[in-house]
Amino acid sequence: MGVKIMRLIKDISYAPENGWRGTGDLLLPDNPRNSQIPVALVIHGGGWNAMDKYGLYPLGKLFALKGFAAFMINYRLLDDAPWPACGDDCLRAAEFLIEKIPMLDKRIIDSPIVVAGASAGGHLALMTGLRLPPEKVSCIISIAGPTDVKSHFASKKNPDPLIYRFFGRRKIGVKDWSNAAPMNFIRKSSPRTICLHSSNDRLVHTRHSEDLICKCRKLGVELELFLFDGNDEFHGMWIPRTDKRDPSKRQFIPCVENKLLSIIGSIKENAGW
Length: 273
Fold this sequence. Notes:
By secondary structure, this protein is an alpha/beta fold. The protein has eight helices and eight strands. The protein is 32% helix and 19% strand.
């Protein structure tokens, strides 16, 4: 299935002042020396307050299998600093990826990046990709990402502690909610966006992806929504009981893995890399 992973460069610092939270691992594919390697930023989930770069290693590996360099990052969690710290970190990582990563391997090309994430990482991928200059992003991939944090928290049984943890304060204004919602950053010039969502998702309702696609269609932005029949474990995208103690070894259910490989391949083909 594609190329083999050649090299893993661990703990690259994109935000030194944040210690290990400002680091990421770079997966490089085993491409020929004269080939061109595009790059992808991969953002883990965990409710903005759990997990680390290993949480979405499985997606990074799919990118590498398709010939991409994948940068899986840590970022500050809510217990380290409230929003917008995690969003700022992801933007910082994307800028680092664009400006500095090509220096690590001559095959890495100066080209628009892919920004991808799952769950809270899907929200952060959208917030990152939609706030970067559109010419810097070839595609955004969100797997079960909340697109409106206000409605996301409102759907929980006891939302107040979650809201307080997210913003770090109790008084939240309209502008605060607006500035944390990917929905409000869609523009006519926004890059191609792809959402994957289980119709059985127990944590993030499919309306988040459905509402986003409605807004994109109104503005003429290219967006694809892939709804799949997932299992009843959380977001329904992982094969149950695959290495819960080591998230880096989890496996996507076949329909999700196949769709992701198809998407990644199409991004590369459309760009002519």
